[in-house]
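Q: Can someone sanity-check these two? First one:
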Amino acid sequence: MKITLDRNSKTSLKQQLYDEFENRITSGILTSNTPLPSIRTVAKSSEISPMTVVKVYEQLENKGLIYKIQGKGSFVADNKFILEEKTELINGQWQDKIQDYVVRAGFTQRTLRYKNSTSYNLGTASLHERFLPTQYIMDHFLMQYDLKKMIKHPPVEGYPAMIEKVCQYVVDKGIESSSENVVITSGSQSGINLIAQTFIAHGDVVVIESPSFPGAIDVFKSRGAQILEVPMTPKGIDVNALLVICEKHPVKLLYTMPNFHNPTGYSARFDVLQEVIALAREHNFLVLEDDSWGDLYYDRLERPLKSIDDEGRVLYLVGFSKTLGPSLKLSAIITDPILRQKLVNAKSSIDSSAPLLSQIIVSSYLGAVAHKQHLIWVRHELKALMTRVKAHIDAIAPPYLKVAYPHGGLVLWMTLPPIFDCKLLYYKLMTDESITVLLGEHCYSSINGNNQFRVCFSYEEEAHVIESLTKIIHMIENLYPLMQRCSQSPNT
């Protein structure tokens, strides 16, 4: 078990160690009755005092997360909120002694554990099947597929027809590109990982928005990056805070979602985009622009950061699975030819190429008249759905629940007063109402977001979304007095 502590963080090493164990236990990475490494082992591998480890283990035991057996050590407790199944303790399992390098207990482990056991999933940011053009894509593909094309190995950078379609597709976004600028990857998460593996080494400074996409945070953590957070505002990233960081630290990469940001839904103003480009030029750092939801605008197309990048500093990542379907996980990275070649070199040792069948299917549909017409319909439907959801929330929500309503995308970002701990809300929604949401704490690299959560309003049937939101708000109202009493108690 490898635990990496950030000695540059404002959070104490003791707190970081506690958080790492708590995350691994509550996410299910460490299952019930799993033996924990010895105090000496943790102290040596993490380069901290054994007494610090002792205090962390005591704190975990006091919280009911672990238990001790005299002469045998400490073990993960059987927590009903974490696991429903029990595992038998087997002393000396060889699997437990295998070193792992899971730096952060990713939010996906916890989400996946409950996805199949809950009735209403408001935690997954995707479109309901009624919004997807699956049938048309398959019918269109079956009418014209060529078996000979599908038995060849595609180039590492991507299927040529797919690359050509991508270049045509981004013209409407104000981005000029050629085949020398494009790399096809197996989804946006794969694209983020490829960029991180190519350009980020242990200790490199990566700046992210606060909050940010949990999957990206996990990737940068796994690379051992020093992650610094900049607040995300309704106008876009806080450029003044970004400037302060740039003046104090050698920033290597900025990860940003300027359009329909995940999880807040905010979009950056054009003047903010200009300032970001100016800072990247002045302080010589790369920008990874994640535009996974750029096609899902309600009223107008938001201009990407890449469209004003005249030096090639922006690595523009655009995904297609959000609007075409999760089984067609493809994305494209558009960047400077020299940077693109570095990505291709790295990709050749990771997965060789994105699935050829997916590339053939998507390239036959991307940018076609039917695709453009479908996107127009989806945008209209999503805007209407969001308007109805907003009206319902506004009618029943208490004044202390703040909701960020977007102009595009699929999610609502909800913020409660600082005294409200959304973990309790999360577990009670699962156990009492069979509803899942995404906890806000997963969207931060630091210890933050305890009073926030994200819901997706487009993955379930509309009636189920309305019903779930009603139950969520009623539960918030029931829990809020308890949170107030706890905050006023001197023993909490």
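And here is the second, same format, sequence then tokens:
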Amino acid sequence: MIENSLRKVYVVGYARTPIAIPTILKALERSQIEKNVVDCLVFGQSFSGGCGPLPLQKILVATATFTPTFITAKTFTGINIDAKTHLVSNLCCSGLDSITVGYEFIKGGKDVCVVGSMESMSQSPFFLKNLRTAKYNLGNNILYDTNLSDGYDYITNSKELKKDNMFELFCKKFKIPRVDLDEYVINSFKRTANAYSDNLIQQEIFPLIIQKKKNKLELEKTIIDSDEIYKKCSIDNICNLSSDSIVTNYNIAPFADGACAIILMSEKKINELELNPLAEIITYDNASVYPSDFPLSISHSITKCLKKINKSFVDYYEINESSALDVIFNMNNLNLDLSNVNLNGGSLSLGHPSAVSGSRIFISLITVLKNFDMKLGCASINNYLGSSTSIVLENV
């Protein structure tokens, strides 16, 4: 316990793209890490159906056996095959929870941990219920979408929100009007566009080249070097959507694919390798409320973190935009100013790849702290069933 309380945990590098393996490898290269120093690989994933057994172990093997063309470091060969793998599944909180697990591993004696998350919602499978026990001799059966049945069951087959969903009921309970939600969505898109113009988000992403066969002789190359959703915003569509509901498809974050990788390291290992860390993880905490009050859990976990560090506020906050409601309510509840929250936009304008959003807001937090010379920041995310996770970082 003495060792646990004294060991500090730092962030030394990160990267994000839509695909896990190149993201991990790029984060390692940026951190100047060789494979034999990695102790563990901890990733979040909400929807692993159809990925086969032990998807993270497969990724570990893949990173240990090849070096892609974008890796420039001559000594780089991938992750240590002996590294511990640990998959976290807690819906939206998975990505941030993976960081807290890695944090605890290093507090407990590990030195280097690759944490993050991966999600390919566009590839999540459909399934048939009761196929093992029922007899389907004649008649139709329903295919269930794992994105909905195992995740977001408040969405209907027609991609609309179910009537009297918990988002809608919460807005009515706390008298949050639709105009406030729509204004926040528009602001999120504008902030993301500005962040790209100022070359901020590009610091997180690296260009990924995907090759597919065009024909027998040619390969077709696709370069992914930016988020796509923010480019498709139509302010008129958001404001003029005809709906009696307060919560609409526009003020709920759209699904997406993505992956993030973050390198955590002990102070001892940083000194040994003579590296310059980006930030120190100061503390984290969790909170849980009844599903009907789910946005409130963010306020609770942030407050717990602030109490641990004896502070009433920090310089900056990243609050996941799984819906505009989550941010607006907690800003009001914690008396936060919009100028200190989600400066580069969020999931409403970047997309919400379920498990990945927690890791993404953690990376965004570091980006903002570094570029705007802020000291302390907090990243917080919840899931709609009432649990949340918050982490406090210090810029170093």
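A (reply): Looked at the second one. The longest helix spans residues 178-197. The chain has two domains: 9-124+255-281, 166-201+235-253+282-390.
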